[in-house]
Amino acid sequence: MATGTRRQEQEPEQRGAGGEQSSQSPLENGIKDGLTGPEAPVNGRQLGDGRRQGYLKYVDEEQLARGLGWFSIGLGLAELLAPRGVARVAGLRGGTGLIRLMGLREIAHGLAIFSQGRRPTEAVWSRVVGDALDLACLGAAFASPDNDKGRLTFATANVLAVSALDVLCARQLSAGDGTERAERGSVPVNKSIIINATPEEVYAFWRELTNLPRFMRHLESVTWTGEGRSHWVAKAPGGSVEWDAEITEDRPNQLIAWRSLEGSEVDNSGTVRFEQAAGGRGTVVRVELDYSPPGGAAGALVAKLVGEDPDGQMQVDLRRLKQVIELGEIVVSDGTLLGEGYSEQRPAQPLGVGVGG
Amino acid sequence: MRANCWYGKKDVRVEQVPDPKIMNRRDAIVKITSTAICGSDLHLYNGFMPTMQKGDILGHEFMGEIVETGPDVHDRKVGDRVVVAFPISCGKCFFCEQELFTLCENSNPNAWMAEKMFGHSPCGIFGYSHLTGGFAGGQAEYARVPFADVGTLKVPEGLSDEQVLFLSDIFPTGFMGAEMCDIQPGDTVAVWGCGPVGQFAMASAYLLGAERVVGIDRFPERLRMAREGAKADTINYEEANVYETLMEMTGGRGPDACIDAVGLEAHGAGAHGFEYAYDRVKQALGAETDRPIALRESIMCCRNGGTVSVIGVYGGFIDKFPMGSFMNRSLTMKTGQCHVQRYWKRLLEYVQKGEIDPSFVITHRMRLDDAPNGFSTFNNKEDDCIKIVLKP
């Protein structure tokens, strides 16, 4: 569900088709307020999350890169093992040594693509360089009267077509890497859960920000410092991170928004919405958090704070919130380390320590 | 205390482990007087359930005496003799309020794991992998029981452990299997699998008004128990073609309802020999996790418009599901881990009135220390083993 305005700005290309059939834009349609806004739910909308569509894609560049890798190896083997045949097709006369060398180079490109992992950005750019070399050789070949000009033109056209694919693939890989980096710098988290309580109850619990560390595991403490401001301490590997925040919007029983004060080490903001679930089935809690550090070391810090899977972590935290409100405490099993064990595993045996009683 | 711990495929050991403690405010500690090995424990024993850890305490069918309670336990007190339900359920969430106890939203601390595998998480379960919470099980001297007010049933005076122990799982599970069939007067119900759950499904089908019940298995002792204990007709699938026999019994129409009480480790013979080999190979290659031979057959046999009720445990993915038969013949499938707490008071009444004595399924009684031997005997179906009760 797209709720952040930043994300919607990225979506017009994808939304175009649907928009033509609808007289309203997605924003007017009520998407901005989430699936079921405080107003009556609006149906007949296109739903979905725009996060995977950060930049316009023509093709899946990862798949294309693998295709190009196989192409490199295939062509390289042909050049290496059957240089005469290749020369005949390309309209070249003369030595086969150069063609064999080009074959070796092609194979190297192919191997580089497969050894560089899922996104072989550099390897595909190396293919672009190779294409330039090929084109230069073909250009030189036009100068020799021995060569078949018609076949040379055909070969050049083919190399140009493959070059275009190489450039497209390499650019998309680079752009994608950029997007991933940008996403790591600014980590948006969007999650929701239904809690068997009224919006009033859940709002009241959250409005007392000092309750947040009870279910958000990366927080150590939140304390009021006066005038609606608060001091936050978060756990981080090797120490803690602190910042001051203020509440920027407060609609009783509906919404709370906060953001860190200027000059914070970790710039972050959050919004939580409380909505009556359909059919009186409790309260839908929708949380949006955004950590936007200036970059560099702080960026790495944020990555550590929110972990590898920020959405998953938030889901676990929201489930803990649900338990705190519905049950008054967080359920632990013998296999979890007193509720901390998100990633840790130990046998399901009693720990030999108690927390209640 | 002593507890039966999982150490790997076909490797369980009784070890000395720390005593359980109160960890949540609604916990109780139960001193176990009787505990059992469940057929579904064999899926763990044979290594079919992922997320097991070396040292996990097994067991989800147990009963005993409450020896300690947390500060928020209100309806149980020290000294109460109780049966413990295998599902761990909070009693306060949306699903518990609807008595869908195995769908409790709050009792699985590892819900994120189950969500990855199942899309959504079921409840926590005692001694049944970390996917269902990593709770220590009840094949032990003591167990911690979360949400004790919801998860325990007080046992009235005058009933023995063996009469009420199976209210923890297999009797309600079999009963739910029959209840899901929405049995009408005159109905014929066929049950695949004459293990303990199948026995209770057959007995329950009669309790719910079925006219005729048919049990399907290959072990003579289980078929004998189905005939003598559950009063069902039986088919030995190694000796007869199940489909042909069921059609003959029902005038060609097929049973009104079919219950799969087998689950993911089905076997096959005769006409199923090839199917069994096929599934076995695919399972070994990791191309499917479960062998749904009984499920496929129950769908093909069920009459048009009938119900297929699945209480045998499945863990992952199956292959060659006969969707065409299922869809074109308007079949209904109902499934689930048993919502024990929804049924056990009613079933206790049946026991109190003498309408059923669940102890008829017990074939072996052992000490807890013999649990590894028990697992092997039960798994290999040696010594006509059908149900083992352990005494700590």
Report on the architecture of this protein.
In chain A, 44% of the residues lie in helices and 17% in strands. With 357 residues, chain A is α+β, with helices and mostly antiparallel strands. Chain A has 2 domains: 61-180; 186-327, Alpha-D-Glucose-1,6-Bisphosphate, Chain A, domain 4 (2-Layer Sandwich). A 7-stranded antiparallel sheet of chain A has the order 1-7-6-5-4-3-2. In chain A, strand 2 and strand 3 form a beta hairpin. Chain A is elongated and about 85 Å long. Residues 1-40, 50-56, 338-343 and 353-357 of chain A have low confidence and may be disordered. With 392 residues, chain B is of the alpha/beta class. Chain B folds into 2 domains: 2-169 and 338-391, Quinone Oxidoreductase, Chain A, domain 1 (Alpha-Beta Complex); 171-335, Rossmann fold. Helices cover 29% and strands 21% of the residues of chain B. Chain B has helices at residues 39-45, 94-97, 111-118, 148-151, 161-164, 170-179, 196-207, 220-228, 242-249, 273-284, 293-301, 323-328, 340-352, 371-379, and strands at 2-8, 11-16, 28-37, 56-57, 61-69, 81-84, 87-88, 124-125, 142-145, 152-154, 188-192, 212-217, 233-236, 257-260, 307-310, 332-335, 364-367, 388-391. In chain B, strands 3, 5, 6, 9, 10, 17 and 18 form a 7-stranded mixed sheet that branches. In chain B, strand 17, helix 14 and strand 18 (388-391) form a beta-alpha-beta unit. In chain B, helix 6 (170-179) packs across helix 7 and helix 6 packs across helix 13. The longest helix of chain B has 13 residues, at 340-352. Classes of the chains: A alpha+beta (357), B alpha/beta (392). The interface between A and B is large, with 37 and 45 residues.
